[in-house]
Structures are given as C-alpha cells and as structure tokens.
Design a protein that fits this description.
Oligomer: single chain
Largest sheet: 5 strands, antiparallel
Helix content: under 10%
Number of helices: 1
Length: 222
C-alpha cells in the first residue's frame, strides 16, 4: 500500500521564514498501531515532537504503561537495551529511540490489544537505514507504508545481497515469515520480504562484510 492510503492526515503545514519569504510544505499526520497481548515489534515512521524517544512516544506520566516493557536492539553489541514502565514514567527514563527506520520490541502485559497513536511529520527527502555488516538489524520502513518492500515504490528495497535474510514479524499471529536473498536482488526462498504492519518492523541479517543501506525517498508532491 502507498503512504497516502495509510496515513491519517491531520493536515499540511505551511511554514514561512519571515526574513526570506521561503515557504515549505510538510506532510503531518498520525498512525495507529495495535499492540497485541505479549510481544510486538513496533516502529514510528514519523518525526515526533520534541523527539522520538520512548518517553515522548509512550508517555507514561500517569502509569498507563505500568509493567509494559520496551527492548531496543544494538547491532554493534548484539544486545538489547531494556526499559520498563512504572507508576509514573520509565525505569530508565525512556531515553531509547524509535526514529524512522528503527524498530523495537514492545511487551503488552494485558490480555487485550491496545491501540497506540503516533503523531508527527512524514520524513521527506532521501533517508537511509543502515544495515550493519555481519549483524542482525531490527528495522522498519522509514515511511508509514506497508507491503512488499521490493515492489512498493516508496520502500524500493532492491539491494538485498545473496545470503541476506529477512524475518518479517506479524504482531497479530506472533510469528515470523522468513525470506533469503539470492543473486541479483532476488528472494528465491520465501519470496520478497513483506512488511505486514504500518508501524511494524522486522529483523534483517546483512550477511556481508560491509554496511548496506536501505534508502527511501518521499516528497509531499507524491
């Protein structure tokens, strides 16, 4: 699906710099994600204000996320960074980030699905997700879109290299779908990777000895 069909539009913001009379147009909107009971991979493909920290995105001042858990992944150390919601904030201050292109695990301790709304600006221009070499990377589309990441014209992931692996997580079924890359950007095992949810994410193994980059581009005129 393309971004226009998935982004709840709050409006377009015209900004004038008084000294130069330069105008810019930003796509502003929101997405809703559903945190199923248990573990979910989530992402925020919007630029939030003032930042994309967990403390901002999952504000817990009144303890609404008490006993929830968030796990950020560090490819450099191959380890998780954990934070836990308490009665009035996050145990580690919620400094972990969910910038566009990043994903993380969110544990919903309740027995029912919970809808979470993220509000912000759609990333514009050309932006890239770094796929760290010889490592698993927990990532998502930079843009609020879903579908086949190869054929979706916004995601446009065409530089998978032979032996790379993608493990696409489905929050609703709590299961992975695996794809393994072949030569020339093809995915003969499992088919093209498919990002199931807007605001979701997946694991990507860059099997090469150098970093790779997933580059996406968007302008408000698309």
């Amino acid at each position: 699906m393309l971004l226009s069909a998935l982004l709840g539009t709050l409006g377009s913001v015209s900004v004038m710099a008084q000294s130069t009379n330069v105008y810019s147009l930003n796509a502003v909107g929101y997405i809703n994600i559903t945190a199923q009971p248990g573990f979910n991979i989530i992402s925020c493909p919007l630029i939030a204000s003032p930042d994309n920290t967990i403390n901002t995105l999952l504000t817990n001042g009144s303890g609404q996320y008490k006993k929830w858990q968030f796990y950020a992944w560090s490819p450099a150390t191959a380890a998780y960074i954990e934070d836990i919601g308490n009665g009035g904030g996050w145990l580690n201050l919620g400094v972990e980030t969910l910038n566009p292109g990043q994903a993380g695990w969110l544990y919903n301790p309740s027995n029912t699905p919970v809808t979470i709304t993220f509000v912000g600006t759609v990333p514009s221009g050309t932006n890239s997700v770094t796929l760290v070499s010889n490592s698993f990377n927990l990532i998502s589309s930079i843009l609020p879109t879903s579908g086949d990441i190869v054929t979706n014209t916004l995601m446009n992931f065409t530089n998978g290299v032979k032996k790379d692996q993608a493990y696409m997580w489905n929050n609703a079924t709590a299961s992975y779908t695996e794809s393994i890359a072949g030569a020339n950007g093809t995915w003969p095992v499992g088919g093209n990777p498919y990002e199931t949810n807007v605001g979701g994410g997946f694991w990507y193994l860059n099997s090469q000895t150098t970093n790779n980059f997933w580059t996406e581009s968007f302008s408000v005129n698309q």
